[in-house]
Amino acid sequence: MKNRIVLKIVGIARRYRVNQKYKDRVFRMIFHKKKDLLSLYNAVNGTDYTNPDDLEIRTLDDAVYLGYKNDLSFLISDTLNLYEHQSTVNPNMPLRGLLYFTNLLKAYVEEKKCNIYGSKLVQLPVPRYLVFYNGSDSMPDVSVLSLSDAYMRTADVSAGKGDMDGTIQEAIKAADPALECKAVILNINKGHNIELMAKCERLEAYAFFVSRVRAYLAAGCTLEAAVDRAIDDCVTNDKLTDILVKNRAEVKNMLLTDFSEKKYRKILVEEAIAEGREEGREEGREEGREEGREEGREEGRLLTIRIFREAKENPEITFEQIAEKVGCTVQEVEDTLKMIGIK
């Protein structure tokens, strides 16, 4: 049972060997220069700013913002912008945006030495949150996610009793939620938002690059070969040559990088549990041993996490030493680590 569960989790790990955030990092590289980020801003907003120095980078450090990378944040005129790239649509983007903007505005207020306790109104830039999406799921050209969609709806409180006429309660119920954050999602897959692509050459080139990677993968190429051929296509068509020629190896490493322990554990728990439950139900009909299967699944998950942790904490450790420490076979250790690219 334990061996079968380990192999199931290894299979899941194999599917996710490529970091699903690889495109985020390439996106950041493409637009890290002010002039390129300004061109993207102009294309999205229909503006015609020409001086890159009008744009002030405000991107938060990983260490500052919840320990993980986000994309690009900048201040221009009276707007505070957060541009994030995603290859999956997450309904919690507005909540993430709210937390991000909280940190941005806190830094802004401190930098400007604003007195939030004074009688004078503190002027703030307007926050704008755009998500550039190019995942494989179907999405419209433009869509909006709202933080208020996540709020739990409770039964209406009845109007006031006794001498109270209900005015206060009615006003509270009629008011909008105290906090709102909207994420505008722009589909930047090839063939979508054509007018936007025409206005921003680098965005169109990025969509071309990703589409070529996918086309070569669909044709049966390995990821490494697909990336190489997609880069060649871009260079041939004079797209992103300043990035892809000079930083070819770095771009490839971004695309081929192994994912972090944090992401590995998250995917492992979510998908292994989901698949394990489904298999458990099927086997339950056949064998009637639900309790044993649940114990086996949990044992397998914990074993794989222990193997992963031992390998990450001590890169010099051998398969035999890991097997002895966690109490499994050498083959289980080798299969697990080989498939997820750790050893």
Counted by DSSP, the helix tally is: 14
H-E string: HHHEEEHEEHEHHHHHHHHH
Percentage of β-strand residues: 5-15%
Distance between the termini: 25 Å
**How many domain regions?**
2
Descriptive report:
This protein is α/β, with parallel strands linked by helices. It has two domains: 2-12 and 259-340, no CATH class; 20-196, no CATH class. The protein has 14 helices and six strands. A six-stranded mixed beta sheet has the order 1-2-3-4-6-5. Strand 3, helix 4 and strand 4 form a beta-alpha-beta unit. Helix 1 (2-15) runs parallel beside helix 14 (330-340), helix 11 (261-287) packs antiparallel against helix 12 and helix 13 (319-326) crosses helix 14. The radius of gyration is 25 Å and the shape is globular. It starts with a helix and ends with a helix. The model is unreliable at 13-24, 63-68, 155-164 and 258-265 (pLDDT under 50).
Task: Pick out its properties.
single chain, 343 residues, alpha/beta, 6-stranded mixed β-sheet, 53% helix, globular
Short note summarizing the structure:
By secondary structure, the chain is an alpha/beta fold. The protein contains 14 helices and 6 strands.
SSE arrangement:
Blueprint (H helix, E strand, L loop, with lengths): L1 H14 L6 H9 L3 H12 L9 E3 L14 E5 L2 E8 L6 H19 L14 E8 L8 E5 L20 H8 L7 E6 L6 H6 L1 H18 L4 H14 L4 H4 L3 H9 L4 H27 L2 H24 L5 H8 L3 H11 L3
Parallel strand pairs: 3-4, 4-6
Antiparallel strand pairs: 1-2, 2-3, 5-6
